[in-house]
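Support request from a user on the community tier.

User writes: "When I paste my structure tokens into the form, the page sometimes reloads and wipes my input. The last time it worked, I copied everything first. Here is what I submitted, just in case something in the input itself triggers the reload:"
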């Protein structure tokens, strides 16, 4: 699991109130459970980063994530 995917899980756990830690350290910032707007901002950034990593991994494995099979009847 990548750093971004791991951090995304931690941020989402904090947002759901299921985290056992009070703060996370992201990009040199300490973000607390109660800082919901900042957690949402960080979550959005991490989601984009994880999606980029997944696309890069798919391409490295010989798959093109944008390919679609179109069927005409």
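"...and here is what came back when it finally went through:"
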């Amino acid at each position: 699991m990548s750093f971004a995917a791991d951090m995304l899980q931690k941020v989402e756990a904090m947002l759901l109130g299921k985290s056992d830690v009070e703060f996370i350290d992201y990009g040199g910032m300490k973000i607390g459970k109660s800082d919901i707007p900042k957690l949402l901002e960080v979550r959005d950034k991490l989601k984009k980063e994880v999606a980029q990593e997944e696309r890069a991994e798919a391409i490295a494995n010989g798959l093109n994530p944008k390919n679609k099979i179109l069927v005409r009847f």
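Agent notes: The reload is a front-end session timeout and is unrelated to the input. Residues 3-60 form one domain. The chain is about 55% helix and 10% strand. Escalated to web team.
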